[in-house]
Design the sequence.
């Protein structure tokens, strides 16, 4: 077991036939038509489950999104091997870790329905990686003299650019919005060091800043993005996309968040502010249909990119950066300010992830 969420539990599963080859299994208890669990909000409705499976299939071929390998509907008590690893995982968690009561009941209910989703192993979620590093990799987190860890400006740029590019492609191909891109829904896999000739060249994010003396500093480009990690976006529970079938009209897949108002009441983490900012953007499109979450508003992707960059930069203090990366850090800070705009929660100076990527590729001018 590697994660416990409100709606489901995630396991990493090793192949019996191919040792050291892993797949990911996500198990979600489903709402029954009647009886136990039929009114439990923490259980996934049949309609939501069908939408998530369809969304996984649609996004599977898009670069930067998780590979979908299949889905099954199961029934019964949670098998003993899964129950055992769940208990072991739960016992290792912090004191504030809370196992949903509904999940505990579902595990022992003989007619409980489950949705089992199988996906490729995309690695470690970013939230964990920023505190514990990546398994088998000594490059992602650096050690400071005081014993604390931090990440380099190059790593911030690498992760941010991969996420932004994946979103930009998905926006263009299927009007995609993730709508829940917190750090737990971004996964990282370390990749072996590549020869310089095989590394993808790109221009870094830049910003023009005035120095204390009033003179303008030079733009600080990063001539290559050295990809030390492969970034994958996961979990489309709240996502929106337009899909087109050759033999039918296009349709929009989305989660109507007006039916889940509690998501806008959270406190204590910046991601809750993003949910409220998304609502402001969506509502800005309608006069009579407040809360029409079917609308395409790529500015929600910009909001999540702003959140991502803030969280990454918090782990990349300037005083710990090597000299060759301080200029890049200034450029990333400049981009953060542009993403924040006037602090109005509307995605700053960008209307889409595509806009962000284009700005980065134009030296920030």
Sequence:
């Amino acid at each position: 077991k590697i994660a416990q969420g409100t709606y489901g539990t995630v396991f990493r599963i090793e192949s019996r036939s191919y040792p050291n080859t892993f797949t990911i299994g996500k198990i979600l208890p489903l709402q029954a038509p009647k009886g136990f669990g039929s009114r439990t909000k923490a259980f996934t409705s049949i309609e939501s489950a069908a939408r998530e499976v369809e969304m996984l299939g649609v996004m599977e071929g898009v670069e930067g999104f998780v590979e979908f390998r299949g889905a099954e509907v199961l029934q019964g008590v949670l098998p003993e091997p899964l129950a055992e690893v769940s208990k072991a995982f739960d016992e290792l968690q912090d004191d504030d870790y809370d196992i949903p009561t509904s999940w505990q009941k579902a595990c022992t209910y003989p007619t409980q329905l489950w949705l089992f989703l199988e996906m490729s192993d995309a690695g470690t979620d970013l939230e964990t990686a920023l505190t514990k590093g990546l398994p088998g990799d000594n490059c992602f987190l650096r050690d400071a003299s005081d014993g604390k860890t931090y990440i380099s400006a190059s790593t911030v740029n690498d992760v941010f650019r991969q996420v932004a590019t994946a979103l930009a492609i998905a926006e263009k191909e299927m009007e995609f919005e993730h709508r829940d891109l917190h750090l737990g829904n971004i996964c990282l896999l370390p990749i072996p060091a590549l020869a310089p000739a095989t590394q993808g060249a790109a221009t870094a994010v830049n910003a023009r800043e005035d120095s204390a003396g009033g003179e303008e500093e030079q733009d600080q480009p990063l001539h290559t993005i050295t990809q030390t990690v492969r970034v994958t976006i996961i979990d489309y529970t709240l996502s929106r996309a337009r899909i087109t079938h050759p033999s039918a009209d296009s349709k929009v897949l989305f989660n109507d968040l007006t039916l889940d108002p509690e998501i806008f009441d959270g406190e204590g983490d910046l991601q809750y502010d993003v949910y409220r900012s998304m609502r402001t953007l969506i509502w800005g499109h309608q006069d009579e249909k407040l809360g029409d979450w079917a609308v395409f508003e790529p500015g929600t992707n910009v909001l999540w990119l702003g959140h991502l960059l803030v969280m990454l930069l918090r782990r990349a203090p300037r005083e710990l950066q090597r000299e060759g990366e301080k200029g890049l850090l200034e450029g990333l800070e400049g981009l953060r300010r542009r993403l924040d705009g006037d602090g109005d929660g509307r995605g700053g100076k960008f209307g889409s992830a595509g806009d962000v990527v284009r700005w980065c590729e134009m030296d920030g001018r």
Summary: The chain has a mean pLDDT of 83. The first helix runs from residue 46 to 59. The chain has nine helices and twelve strands. Residues 196 and 226 are 9 Å apart (CA to CA).
